Each structure stands twice: as C-alpha cells, then as structure tokens.
Model the fold of this input.
Amino acid sequence: MDAKSHWENIYAKKGPDAVSWYREHLETSLALIERATDVRTASIIDIGGGESTLVDDLLARGCQNITVLDVSEKAIEVTRKRLGPAAEKVHWIVADIERVELPRRAYDAWHDRAVFHFLTAPAQRIAYVRQATHAVKPGGHVIVSTFGPEGPMECSGLEVMRYDADSLHGEFGARFRLVESSKELHQTPLGKTQQFLYCYCRVE
Done:
C-alpha cells in the first residue's frame, strides 16, 4: 500500500480526536511559531496538517497567509468542513511532501509535527530537506517535531525513526542553524505517553 492509500485508510477509520497524535491545541508549536514570526503577516506552511487544529489557532491569531499540506484528501476535507467559511482563507495542498512542487522561497515558517519521523529511508529524508531548502525564505524558520529517543518505534502500523536534537538537526545540515530544542510528553487519546522532540532551526 502506498503512503496516500495508507493514510486515507487511517483517516477513514478514525475520527480526528482518535488518532494517537491528536492534541486539542498544539501549544508548543504555537509558542515556537509566535516567537519566530509575526503570525499576522508571516507566510506559514503546515506539513502534514491534515486534521490538526493548528490552522484554527493560527487563523484565530490573525494569520493571513497559511498553507496546509497533507497526503490525505480526507483529512483536509475534515478540516475544511470544521473551519466552515474560514477555510477559504487557507491554501490547501493534497500531495506527498517528497514529490510536491512548492514555490521557491515562499514561506517564512515551515511547521511539521509528526511527518518527518515516518521517513525511514534516507532518500525520503533527503527529498524532504530539499523541499524545505527550496521553499523556505533565507532567514526563515523550520520547526519540526518527531518522536524523541524514548518515543515509540512504530505508529499507525508503520515503522518510525526516533531522534535526539543532534541527530534530527544532522538530517538537515549546516544551512539550518539550530536555535533551540525541547522534549514533550504527549498523552494519546488512549492514555499512553509518547515522547516528542521539537527542533527549531533558522535557515541561513
């Protein structure tokens, strides 16, 4: 099963608040984005945004230029319906981040919570970093969250990678200057605890 089929199947079976990574508000992500940018004027792309409420919270803060990308059309449709008329303020992209054609130097901030750790093949990670390098403005910001070193070894039936700050930053390279990192314990809807790592980099 390819990635798109896999995730369409996951979202067809589970509601937005039933997937393991669900969180009512992405407080850590929001805090990092607000420290890095003026959300009212920044161009922000949320990779794997799917059914996440990050877009809701960014719109509530006055964000005028937000793009949500996800491989699952169903996930994006759920969020569009949830937002109602406000969905028209968002640019929606249904695509695989490894293959999509993104505009060059278009974004002030790149956010990804829980996509990068699914890229288990080196070629996948190289493609992802190439996309971020292409799409983020010089001086822009890249915020990526993955499972930490004590996180699970698989998720949604797929193997995942686990990272500490050095190994995650190492995937991106010297052009991405590590500004800060932190770990967070996430409680899943089933009551399990998962360790997440957040890395915030500045693009040189």
Observations:
- The CA atoms of residues 29 and 35 lie 10 Å apart.
- The mean pLDDT is 96.
